[in-house]
Amino acid sequence: MHIPFSQLPDTARIWVYAAPRAFTQEELSFINTTAPEFLNGWATHGTPLQAAFQVLEDQFLILAVDEDVQAASGCSIDSSMGYVRMLEKELNLTLTDRSLVYFREGEKINTYPLTELKPLIKQGKIAPQTQLINTLVATKEELEQKWLLPAAESWLKRYFKKATV
User: Fold this and answer.
1) For the chain, how far is it from start to end, CA to CA, in angstroms?
2) How far apart are CA 19 and CA 71, in angstroms?
3) Residue 64: CB partners within 8 Å, gap ≥ 6?
4) Nearest-CA neighbor of 35 among 5, 9, 10?
5) Residue 35 CB neighbour total at 10 angstroms
6) What does the angle CA 102 – CA 103 – CA 106 come to, to the nearest 5 degrees?
7) Gap between the Cα atoms of 47 and 41, Å rounded
8) Positive or negative torsion for Cα 23, 25, 31, 36
């Protein structure tokens, strides 16, 4: 059952799907039409899930479930992946590439392959205070509190230590 994202508790489980670029207005319209349709039918073992979606920065699709009401099962998570794969096909872009890392620099979002991060840090193009978009958040509370992190306070901190040796 689709509910507004604002009605989810802080403990709601979330999944972040990142596009390699901002969605176009047409793509956003498609998501805003199809996501509620999917969420209204999303269930686990026949029990509807209380679920919501949100698009952040016009580039990140967030799916969320209130697991205090009903936990998502493996089958229901597979079902959500079916929806995401349909989006990827219809929009002709990838939402599941975990080899890309996203940074907010001013009003712009920059996307870098994971393999380029260490050299970019050594060159100073990614600084300790550069804002990492944390696509690893797992709850609504983490999304609200840890969506943007200084790179040196994220999982990237190990690269800064090595880059300064």
Assistant:
1) 52
2) 26
3) 5, 8, 12, 13, 14, 15, 51, 52, 53, 54, 140
4) 5
5) 21
6) 145
7) 10
8) positive
CA 112 to chain centre: 16
User: What is the reported pTM?
Assistant: 0.91
User: What torsion, rounded to 10 degrees, do the Cα atoms 31, 139, 120, 124 define?
Assistant: 120
The upper half-sphere exposure of residue 92, i.e. CA atoms within 13 Å in the direction of its Cβ, equals 2
Q: Is 83 exposed, middle or buried (0-12, 13-18, 19+ CB in 10 A)?
A: buried
- Count other Cβ atoms within 10 Å, centred on residue 162: 11
Phi, psi at 82, each rounded to 5°: -60, -40
DSSP assigned state of 152: G
What's the burial of 54, exposed, middle or buried (CB within 10 Å: 0-12/13-18/19+)? middle
- The identity of residue 145, as a single letter, is Q
Average pLDDT rounded to a whole number, residues 19-28: 97
Question: pLDDT tens digits, residue range 81-127?
Answer: 999 999 999 999 999 999 999 999 989 999 999 999 999 999 999 99
Q: What tokens does 104 get? A: 């907010």
- The closest of 10, 22, 43, 40 to 137, measured between CA atoms, is 10
